[in-house]
Automatic annotation (TrEMBL):
This protein's name: Periplasmic heavy metal sensor
Signal peptide: 1-22
Keywords for the protein's UniProt record, in alphabetical order: Signal
Domain of life of the source: Bacteria
């Protein structure tokens, strides 16, 4: 999960811009980065799981939707989470407890998303590949960020 958050965080950071043109450039860059991640993930999954073109074509829309929903879920805790990570000394006890509740809820909701989306892949992949899919996706995220550290 931490690896997925890194991917989502980097995508978020790439979308900034102050002027309308900068926002457009940021949005274009965000879209380009997202497409790059998805293309690399597609190739990685094909290689690591020995997927056929048909399997990966059927699988990627499901995984892309899962990643989009994870990103939206992560964004819902972004503001308070950033303050906690930065060690903001002005955080109140109530804010810290709120953050804890948000993070616990986040983990539960993310697990529910994974269950829903990975089970949707049953009709696409044989069981041996499906069982390895979550581990291979996490391995991809870890390797991607190791290569693209700032």
């Amino acid at each position: 999960m931490k690896r997925i958050l890194y991917i989502l965080c980097s995508i978020l950071l790439l979308t900034g811009g102050l002027s309308a043109q900068a926002k457009k450039k940021g949005a274009d860059h965000h879209k380009d980065m997202r497409e790059k991640v998805r293309a690399e993930k597609r190739a990685f999954l094909m290689r690591e799981l020995s997927l056929t073109a048909g399997e990966v074509d059927a699988l990627m829309p499901v995984l892309n939707e899962l990643d989009d929903k994870r990103f939206a879920l992560w964004r819902s805790t972004e503001t308070l989470g950033r303050r906690v990570r930065q060690g903001d000394k002005t955080l109140t006890e109530a804010e810290l407890n709120t953050h804890l509740e948000q993070m616990l809820d986040f983990h539960v909701r993310e697990a529910e998303l994974e269950r829903t989306y990975y089970l949707r892949c049953r009709s696409t992949l044989p069981a041996d590949k499906l069982v390895r899919l979550p581990m291979v996706c996490k391995d991809f995220a870890r390797r991607f960020f190791e290569r693209h550290k700032r």
